[in-house]
Structures are given as C-alpha cells and as structure tokens.
Design a protein that fits this description.
By secondary structure, this protein is α+β, with helices and mostly antiparallel strands. It contains 9 helices and 5 strands. The chain has 2 domains: 17-161, no CATH class; 164-236. α2 (27-35) packs across α3 and α4 (51-85) packs antiparallel against α7. Bound molecules: zinc ion (ZN).
C-alpha cells in the first residue's frame, strides 16, 4: 500500500508527549473547567498563550489533520484493493475471514483509532471517595482548532492589536493546496495522478528555526514522502 498512514500515526504517537494529562482538583476548579475549559487547561497544565505555543498547537492541528486525511486515504485504498479482487474471493471468506484476506493481500491491519489525541482531565474525588466530578477535553482536530483560536484571541488581547498573521486553519490549508494546484511542490506528485495521495502543509522555515509565523509565503504543499524526508533531514 502506498499510503503512509501507519508511519504517520507513529509520528503522532511520538508527538503525543502526554497522552492523558490528569489534574486532581477541588470540586470548584472542576466545575470552572467545565465552563471555561481552555482557560483552565492553560492555567493548570501550564500552557502559555504566546506565539510559540500558538505555532506549536497550529502544527499539531496540521499534523493531526494530515493523519485524518491519511486514514481516509488508507480506507479508500484498502477498499479499492478488496474491490479489485472481489470476484475472485469466495463470499464466505469476505464475510468471515477478512483478517486472512488482508494478510494474503499484504494489507497489515492496524489500529486507526483516535487514541493518539492528547486529552486533559480535571478530576475531583471527595475525601470519602463517594462523590466525584470530572471534566475531560480531548484535543481532536475540531477542538484543537478552537484552542488555536483561543490562544490567538488571548495574544490579541494582551497586545491590544490585531494579529497580523493568519491562523493555520482548515481553510488556510485548503487555500495553500489550491494555490499549489494540489501538487507536491517538491516532486510534482499530484492528486490528479494519485487520487489517494496524502498532501500535507509544510512550513518552509520550521517553527523551531524561528519560522513561527503562519504566512502563505512560508507555507507549501508537500506529499507525505517529501515531507517525511524533509523532517528526517532537519532532525539528523
Ligand atoms: Zn513529493
């Protein structure tokens, strides 16, 4: 299979520094967290609202979105492959022995659940243990996008000026892909030629090299292969 979903998920599992952040707190804090989750997550899990953390979380959205896209491509490619052998495989095997079929087709089944998303939990348990309250926020893509907007709004308030930069939202990612003609600007692979190709948005100057600004000029479309080899080169 061409799709890199497995490597991609492994990437994000490594990224997922603290999969489950739990804060044991009073009932009041837990109740407040329910009302204003982002404010309380920042306060109690020590996430600063500054440009660095904005860029970091934008990158999380970017990478998790690529994974979601990769999952869809993986499933579509798997279905296409199974469809292509459909007439040659007895129905009973299709129904009862999908795992064997996957093995024979060279598809390695693996977990594509959402467990790689970080989550933040506020937990109150009374001293006797008979009363409790909890507030759990999973940082999936839609929640992360909201969180990015939240950080941006806090920065804006602090600076009392309008943010000059754009946020790395789904809209912006789509805009960059459209601008680049749904092609990898590095190797030229295109969605037109490979319908299941995983295209990702890359910062030309990465965040850790001072390229925190999310400006269209600093963004480009890369296929997952080129993006992987770029990050390998940067790390090594
Ligand atoms: Zn490429």
């Amino acid at each position: 299979m061409k799709v890199s979903i497995k490597e991609n998920i492994q990437d994000c599992n490594e990224l997922n520094l603290q999969a489950d952040n739990i804060y044991n707190c009073s009932r009041q804090v837990c109740a407040n967290a329910r009302n204003q989750p982002f404010k309380y997550i920042c306060k109690y899990f020590k996430i600063s609202c500054n440009e660095d953390s904005l860029a970091f979380h934008e990158d999380l959205v970017n990478r998790f979105s690529a994974i979601e896209q990769g999952k869809k491509s993986y499933i579509a490619e798997r279905e296409a492959l199974i469809k292509s052998v459909h007439t040659e495989v007895p129905t009973l095997i299709m129904l009862f022995s999908m795992n064997r079929l996957y093995r024979e087709l060279g598809i390695r089944p693996f977990d594509i659940e959402d467990k790689y998303y970080p989550s933040y939990r506020f937990l109150y348990v009374s001293s006797g243990g008979n009363s409790s309250l909890e507030c759990t926020v999973d940082f999936d893509v839609p929640t992360l996008e909201k969180f990015v907007h939240y950080i941006a709004s806090v920065i804006e308030k602090k600076n009392s000026m309008v943010c000059q930069r754009q946020l790395m939202t789904n809209n912006l990612r789509e805009q960059i892909k459209r601008r680049d003609g749904y092609k990898c600007v590095c190797c030229g692979a295109s969605l037109e030629d490979e319908p299941h190709l995983l295209l990702e948005i890359d910062r030309i100057i990465p965040v850790f090299k001072g390229g925190g600004k999310t400006l269209p000029e600093n963004l480009q479309t890369l296929c997952w292969r080129c993006n992987r080899s770029k990050s390998d080169k940067l790390v090594n």
